[in-house]
Design a protein that fits this description.
3 domains; 18 helices; 16 strands; EAL domain-containing protein; transmembrane
Length: 550
């Protein structure tokens, strides 16, 4: 398309001016009478023709230009519209994607929050509800029971000696066992009951409204029976039992805290009674539990406050009446000036874990006293020290004992370690290993209270015990059990110590059976080291004349 440029437009304008000038000039001449009217008309017609030709030459390009501009504008508008439309479409798609992503994110966040909420109230190992929902559910049960004038029960369920299984078979097997036990407990529940994993090997069940105590007994019995069925894991058949404590609303508590506390107290009572059973809460067991809690609290500072002391009872060679050693016995007078016997506080210390620190203190002090007496002239004086089975499971127990002997330059053969007969010793690899490590040091091992617990020849055949100690419950010794233990010890080339000798007849009877050593009030009751005569010699005449009062 040909367009007008500036030069062409100027040429057209000049031509128009020339035509106009000629017409004006002719008009002037006509007025002056120089040309005729006909000549004027011809000139005007010529000018008009020129104007028309020039106008055509100008208008056609202008029209074409105008059309071009119009078309260009239209295409530009279309193009801009397409661009705007594309941008709008892109923005719409982006916004849509953002909204979709936002919706997906919000949905994922909601799912995550729901998952977290479920995790907060769900035990990940067993799949049971966890303790976070326990108080709310007990509160809800209280509301229902109060409204309906009914009763419900809270059960504390604990697997007996689960820690021993964890220690011997490993935590992986322990976790699998917990899952199986959780399933068994759940199946033993009624449909409207709830069981939660409280923590570790402890479970809590809420037994909903029931009509009689027999219903609770039935559920508890069913749980105990189903748990003690053998479980096969890792090619091993595992036997485990459970103890259950029961607290009922409203008799044993009217709020979640009281019910849980009293159920826990009843559980402790069930374990103390021998495990593998259930016990309802009662005020007597609560009093006992509170007493134990008080003792456990006081034990924390007993060593720091120098509240413990050791007394010593002579070990006498029955054939000669000579004092050959002593047994170290711990005594405790607390900050309230109350004397608490070891039969009461030792089990509490074992349960709370404080027995490790207390036991280490006893080992140190007893060995130091033995060294003192050696330095005083009794180089072969024997020191017998009681050790809890919990101490044997402590890491490096034998190493610690060896370090004490080394630091005091004390011969190992002068120390006897007394272990109370307990089936857990033979079932725990750490305990058995510790026994052999102690024996390898040259220390003699003494099986205390033999015949009162889980008497089994495997103790004597498979473990490195050197001495049997007849329990005081078999004294006076004119009975078959004492005679049998002495005969068995002789057959196995083991030495025998009889404790609880209180009469001259008992002394003579044991001596006649060739029982090598004895302890008891006939010789001397436990006394502080200042009152202990390491050189004392006993004979029948002296004993007959100086029987102590007891």
């Amino acid at each position: 398309m040909k367009l007008l440029n500036t030069e062409a437009i100027l040429t057209l304008c000049e031509n128009d001016i020339k035509s106009a000038d000629l017409a004006l000039n002719t008009l002037n001449r006509y007025q002056n009478g120089e040309v005729s009217l006909l000549a004027l008309q011809e000139q005007i017609m010529t000018a008009l023709s020129d104007f028309k030709n020039n106008s055509n030459k100008f208008e056609q390009p202008v029209e074409r230009t105008t059309n071009f501009v119009a078309k260009a504008t239209i295409w530009l508008i279309i193009l801009c519209s397409l661009i705007v439309l594309s941008i709008t479409l892109f923005i719409s798609i982006s916004v849509s994607r953002v909204l979709t992503k936002r919706e997906e994110t919000m949905k994922a966040l909601a799912q995550s929050e729901e998952h977290d909420r479920q995790l907060a109230y769900l035990d990940t190992l067993t799949g049971l509800p966890n303790r976070n929902i326990l108080e709310d559910n007990i509160t809800h049960a209280i509301s229902n029971a109060s409204r309906n004038h009914s009763i419900f029960a809270v059960m504390f369920i604990d697997l007996d000696q689960f820690k021993d299984i964890n220690d011997t078979l490993g935590h992986t097997i322990g976790d699998k066992l917990l899952v199986k036990m959780a399933n068994r407990i759940s199946l033993a529940m009624r449909d409207n009951d709830l069981v939660v994993r409280f923590g570790g090997d402890e479970f809590v069940a809420i037994i909903d409204c029931f009509d009689s105590v027999e219903t609770i007994d039935c559920v508890a019995t069913r749980i105990i029976e189903t748990i003690r069925k053998p479980v096969r894991l890792a090619d091993s058949e595992i036997l485990i039992t459970a103890s259950i404590g029961i607290a009922c609303y409203p008799e044993n508590g009217k709020d979640p805290t009281s019910l849980l506390k009293h159920a826990d107290t009843a559980l402790y009572q069930a374990k103390s009674a021998g495990k593998n059973q259930f016990q309802p809460y009662d005020s007597l067991s609560a009093s006992i539990q509170n007493r134990k809690l008080k003792i456990a609290k006081q034990l924390r500072n007993a060593i720091k406050n120098n509240e413990f002391s050791l007394v010593y009872q002579p070990i006498v060679q029955l054939s000669s009446g000579r004092t050959v050693g002593s047994e170290a016995l711990i005594r405790w007078t607390n900050a309230e000036n109350e004397t608490i016997g070891p039969d009461e506080f030792i089990p509490v210390a074992e349960h709370s874990g404080q027995i490790i620190e207390i036991g280490n203190w006893v080992l140190q002090k007893a060995c130091e006293q033995c060294k003192t007496w050696h330095s005083a002239g009794t180089m072969k004086h024997i020191m017998a020290i009681n050790v809890s089975s919990f101490q044997l499971k402590a890491p490096f127990f034998a190493k610690g004992l060896s370090d004490i002997l080394t630091s005091l330059s004390l011969p190992a053969e002068c120390i006897h370690i007394e272990i109370t007969e307990n089936i857990a010793i033979t079932e725990d690899k750490m305990s058995v290993s510790a026994l052999y490590e102690i024996s390898d040091l040259g220390i003699k091992l003494l099986l205390d209270d033999f015949g009162t617990g889980y008497s089994c020849l495997s103790y004597l055949k498979n473990l490195p015990f050197d001495i049997l100690k007849i329990d005081r419950s078999f004294m006076p010794a004119n009975n078959t059990i004492a005679s049998t233990i002495i005969a068995m010890g002789h057959e196995l080339k083991m030495e025998i110590i009889a404790e609880g000798i209180e009469t001259l007849d008992c002394y003579r009877f044991l001596n006649k059976l060739n029982c090598q050593y004895g302890q008891g009030y006939l010789f001397q009751k436990p006394v502080p080291p200042s009152k202990f005569d390491i050189f004392r010699q006993f004979n029948q005449e002296v004993l007959a004349c100086t029987l102590p009062n007891h």
